[in-house]
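This part of the workshop introduces the protein records we will be handling. A record pairs a protein's sequence with a compact description of its fold. Comparing a sequence with its tokens is the quickest way to learn the format. The record below serves as our worked example for the rest of this section:
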Amino acid sequence: MEGDGLHVSRPPLFNGQNYELWKMRMIGFIQYNGMELINIIKNGIPTLIDKSGEFLPFESMTVEEKRVCQNNAKARHIIMCALSEEEMSKVLAMVSAKEMWDTLALTYEGSKEVKRNKLTMLKRQYEMFAIKDQASIQSMVSRLQVILNSLRSLGSTVSQYEINDKILRILPAKWRAQEPLKILRPCPWKNW
């Protein structure tokens, strides 16, 4: 994914590394190209595929079924354009975009049990998160953001209040105010 940049007409390239980052970028790209495509990827098109895994005859489809079939083709095309040759070989023969997406997710995220274990590990990392000695606030926030993004990619979120509270609790003593701020000060000319 390095060096491919972000381009509005080209999906992010996936070469087998950094799946979670690619997935988040890919969801944004697909949404940009049409929210109906995300629906196709999430829900699939079971009514348009026969028992052998092939599409029903195009001529027998209703107008709505043809539209769904076209959106599946768009979603498949976007996924294929986003994959390196090696990654594409894993999903090339699949008819539905959902099947392609789910295969990539299973390959790189693992089963539900693996996801649950990753989620547990990430939650523990979040709970145990602390600032490193001599680290800047920026590096601390960057490290925390990596954990939070990984949690989000697995479907878990942390509220902004909890994040702010976490940061305030882990700040080193040298960064904390030594005495409460006095916002209202006596007016110096009051006794004149």
